[in-house]
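Reproducibility note. Readers wishing to regenerate the assembly model reported in the main text can use the exact inputs given here. Chain order matters: entities are listed in the order in which they were concatenated for prediction.
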Amino acid sequence: MKITHLGHSGFIVETASARIAIDPFLTDNPLATMKAADVKCDFLILTHGHEDHSSDAEEIAKANDATLIANHEIAAYFAARGVAKTHGMNPGGGFEFPFGRVKMTVAHHSSSINAGPDMLYMGVACGVVVEAEGLRVYHAGDTALFSDMKLIARGGIDLALLPIGDNFTMGPDDALDALEFLKPRVTVPAHYNTWPPIAQDAEKFAGDAAASGHEVKILAPGESFELV
Ligand code: NI
Ligand code: MN
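Running the prediction on these inputs yields the following structure tokens for the assembly.
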């Protein structure tokens, strides 16, 4: 399984049969190394409505004829905007897609989309567990630390994609506690350094995690690694 960090919370999970983009955010991302038009995917998962996760979703889903997977409200919103294939879910629910299973998890965060002067509320924020090729990848979305991460860890987590930016999500200290709950084999930090309010020292986070026995792999925007 190939994992590519797009920057911010965006990742591409590539299996032998499918490319799955999660929260791709490129057009308004000052650290992005590629354009939304360059994203190739068969499925597009959105954890919640905020622009730093969803603002490129319509373009990418339409250009790739990709299936957009998100909570019910977000799926319905993009279906109404002409995205042909959408699949609505809600926390606690899982579904078998052709590439593997996607389970939505709870996240402690908000979810909205700014539509002109109006703020549309977009259901609850979620995380997601993608299970394919015998590997389980947990993308936490934007979230605070919560002890029920222990429930998400049942069955084991091979890769955790965790926010460490602070301000909008948990920061590095809470993310270290998340590692204790999740016990992932590998963790890639996300949702930091994109803007000054979420500037963080990922190397320090990786060192602190290593001191407690957790492997953290830092991926710069555009970097990939093979999860085996
Ligand atoms: Ni958010
Ligand atoms: Mn965010």
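We highlight two features of this model. The CA atoms of residues 26 and 32 lie 5 Å apart. The pocket of nickel (II) ion (ligand 1) is lined by residues 48, 50, 109, 142, 168 (CB under 6 Å).
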